[in-house]
């Protein structure tokens, strides 16, 4: 098996298992069995479990953000519709049978206090996601602070959906985002 194929099979197995069961609950032998790659080859490509976790999170970050942006770019025409399309994408994600919440929140909860690398990857993902939402709000001619508030709605929806097991949080967060957009376009000022 060539290096690229072995790496992809390992990362596919790691993503499925880490996301479904948690990082600490899955050993390298389980990854080996699920990927069909020998333990020796696994350690050649990922010398430690920490290296594998970092590669899993980096790949998930790229894929998740690309999937979101593709949906937003194709699902809506106006800048405000594009911003609200984020919540439609979240709702669809929340309805997937393999949805277990945000992988970055989950990994930070498990390892953020003991792994600076995991904490940094989680922060990077959230910073990038929040910056994307602020870009969408700026394009909609809405204050950047509103983008930050909308990011908090999205984060809350992710956590609520994971705990409640229902996608309703996405619809509720979308309604709140619509309200924020309406208030912002009216230039309603809130006390600091």
TrEMBL record:
UniProt keyword Transcription regulation, yes or no: yes
Protein name: TetR/AcrR family transcriptional regulator
Transmembrane helix as UniProt keyword: no
Gene3D superfamilies: Tetracycline Repressor, domain 2
Domain of life: Bacteria
Residue ranges of domain HTH tetR-type in the record: 4-64
DNA-binding region: 27-46
Classification via InterPro entries: Homeodomain-like_sf, HTH_TetR, Tet_transcr_reg_TetR-rel_C_sf
Record keywords, A-Z: DNA-binding, Transcription, Transcription regulation
Pfam families: TetR_N
């Amino acid at each position: 098996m060539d290096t690229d194929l072995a790496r992809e099979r390992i990362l596919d197995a790691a993503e499925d298992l880490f996301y479904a069961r948690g990082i600490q609950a899955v050993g390298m032998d389980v990854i080996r069995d699920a990927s069909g790659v020998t333990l020796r080859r696994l350690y050649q490509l990922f010398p430690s479990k920490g290296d594998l976790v970092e590669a899993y999170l980096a790949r998930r970050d790229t894929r998740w953000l690309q999937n979101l942006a593709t949906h937003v770019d194709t699902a809506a025409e106006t800048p405000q519709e594009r911003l609200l399309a984020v919540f439609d994408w979240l709702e669809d994600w929340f309805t997937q049978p393999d949805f277990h919440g945000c992988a970055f929140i989950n990994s930070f909860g498990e390892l953020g206090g003991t792994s600076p690398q995991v904490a940094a990857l989680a922060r990077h993902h959230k910073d990038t996601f929040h910056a994307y939402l602020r870009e969408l709000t700026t394009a909609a001619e809405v204050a950047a602070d509103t983008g930050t508030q909308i990011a908090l709605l999205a984060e809350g929806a992710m956590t609520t959906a994971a705990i409640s097991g229902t996608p309703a949080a996405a619809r509720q967060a979308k309604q709140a985002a619509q309200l924020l957009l309406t208030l912002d376009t009216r230039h309603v000022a809130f006390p600091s």
